[in-house]
């Protein structure tokens, strides 16, 4: 499955920008990554190139249909590109948000559409429908959410709105990512939700450039560095990376980027990966003002020493966030949300049984 930088691309007429801005803000409040021209295009950027790149990097194009947009040549180009890049509307989605009663062209009538309410009290429900039904189906088929979109025991969930019981930890993680020289460690048992927490933070910050690396699948620190550079779009300028040369390379990044290093505790002790990352973080923290890339480390253990396999002299640069088992109340909230999204509320005895089986671990959901 393709990995997209943005969840949504907002195609609209400039005349409708105040309304579109409100929709974008609500989507972002729910953790969605939205490309919106006024926040993504900067002075000196080539507008057409930026829009073309953003469309290629977006999972779903939202066409804000109005009399203004339907008469805009620019918006017609965006709309046509979205439809014809994936006519079946399976890999990439195309949905319509109607801002007025302007009739839709014939080619658009088979796509899901949502009428945006002018009453603010109704807009939360509209956003929920938009998030749940970006499936490309006609509006008459509410097709909402599929079971396996919500219950993913084989992988971390992709929906940040299903993250429950982690508000305090998410707030801590976001705070650390805004603190110069600090690179947090997320610690907890396997299946406790470490990766889900990290992904929720990335979505909340709307990070454009990030890398998520499971280091137990690599063989050396140098290989890790090269994979991270590839994810961040950086061309290595050395044949083999050391902590110092990796730091020099990352200092060339012009905007904020986040790297998530997972499974560090599972790296064989005979390799140099954990030790080299410890050296790298110490140097990076000492040069925080010049270092735009933030690192998040995740693993199983009691403290940072278990993750890095050694005593660290840079503990202050590596604050720890511990994830405990979720409470029965938290799991109950998750199951209620899932039932609501599926339009199939779960019976109380089923919820109790699932909570008992999960035993505090979201992995078993």
Number of domains: 3
Q: Which percent band covers the strand fraction?
A: 5-15%
Shape: globular
Helix content: 25-40%
* C-alpha termini separation: 22 Å
CATH class of the largest domain: Alpha Beta
Along the chain, the helix and strand elements come as: EHEHHEHHEEHHHEHEHHEHEHEHH
Task: Give the secondary structure arrangement, pairings included.
Blueprint: E1 6-11, H1 17-29, E2 34-35, H2 37-40, H3 47-56, E3 58-65, H4 67-70, H5 73-85, E4 93-98, E5 113-115, H6 123-132, H7 147-150, H8 167-177, E6 185-187, H9 194-205, E7 209-214, H10 221-232, H11 243-250, E8 257-262, H12 273-286, E9 293-299, H13 304-308, E10 320-322, H14 328-341, H15 348-358
Parallel strand pairs: 1-2, 1-3, 3-4, 4-5, 6-9, 6-10, 7-8, 8-9
Helix pairs in contact: 8-9, 11-12, 14-15
How would you describe this protein?
By secondary structure, this protein is of the alpha/beta class. The protein folds into 3 domains: 6-144, Rossmann fold; 148-154 and 326-364, no CATH class; 166-322, 3-Layer(aba) Sandwich (Rossmann fold). Helices cover 40% and strands 14% of the residues. The protein contains 15 helices and 10 strands. A 5-stranded parallel β-sheet has the order 2-1-3-4-5, with helices on both faces. The radius of gyration is 22 Å and the shape is globular.
Key descriptive features of the protein:
365 residues; alpha/beta; Rossmann fold; 3 domains; 5-stranded parallel beta sheet; 10 strands; globular
């Amino acid at each position: 499955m393709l990995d997209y930088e943005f969840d949504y691309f907002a195609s609209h007429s400039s005349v409708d920008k105040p309304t579109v801005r409100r929709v974008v803000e609500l989507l972002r409040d729910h953790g969605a990554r939205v490309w919106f021209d006024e926040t993504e295009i900067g002075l000196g950027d080539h507008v057409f190139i930026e829009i073309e790149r953003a469309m290629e990097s977006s999972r779903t194009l939202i066409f804000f249909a109005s009399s203004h947009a339907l008469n805009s040549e620019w918006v017609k180009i965006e709309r046509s590109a979205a439809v014809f890049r994936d006519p079946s509307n399976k890999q990439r989605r195309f949905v319509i948000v109607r801002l007025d009663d302007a009739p839709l062209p014939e080619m658009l009538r088979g796509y899901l559409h949502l009428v945006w309410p002018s009453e603010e009290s109704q807009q939360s429900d509209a956003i929920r429908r938009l998030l749940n039904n970006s499936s490309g189906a006609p509006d008459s088929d509410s097709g909402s959410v599929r079971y396996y979109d919500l219950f993913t025991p084989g992988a971390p969930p992709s929906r940040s709105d299903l993250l429950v019981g982690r508000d305090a930890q998410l707030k801590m993680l976001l705070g650390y990512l805004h603190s110069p020289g600090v690179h947090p460690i997320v610690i907890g048992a396997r299946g406790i939700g470490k990766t889900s927490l990290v992904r929720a933070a990335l979505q909340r910050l709307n990070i454009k450039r990030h890398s998520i690396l499971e280091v137990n699948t690599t063989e050396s620190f140098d290989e890790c560095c090269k994979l991270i550079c590839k994810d961040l779009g950086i061309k290595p300028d050395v044949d083999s990376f050391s902590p110092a040369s990796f730091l020099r390379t990352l200092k060339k990044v012009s905007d904020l980027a986040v790297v998530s290093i997972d499974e560090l505790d599972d790296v064989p002790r005979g390799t140099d990966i954990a030790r080299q990352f410890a050296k790298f973080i110490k140097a990076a923290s000492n040069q925080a003002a010049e270092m735009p890339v933030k690192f998040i480390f995740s693993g199983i253990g009691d403290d940072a020493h278990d993750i890095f396999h050694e005593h660290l002299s840079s503990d202050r640069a590596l604050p720890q966030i511990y994830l405990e088992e979720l409470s029965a109340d938290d799991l109950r909230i998750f199951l209620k949300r899932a039932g609501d999204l599926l339009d199939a509320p779960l019976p109380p005895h089923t919820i109790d049984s699932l909570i008992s089986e999960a035993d505090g671990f979201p992995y078993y959901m």
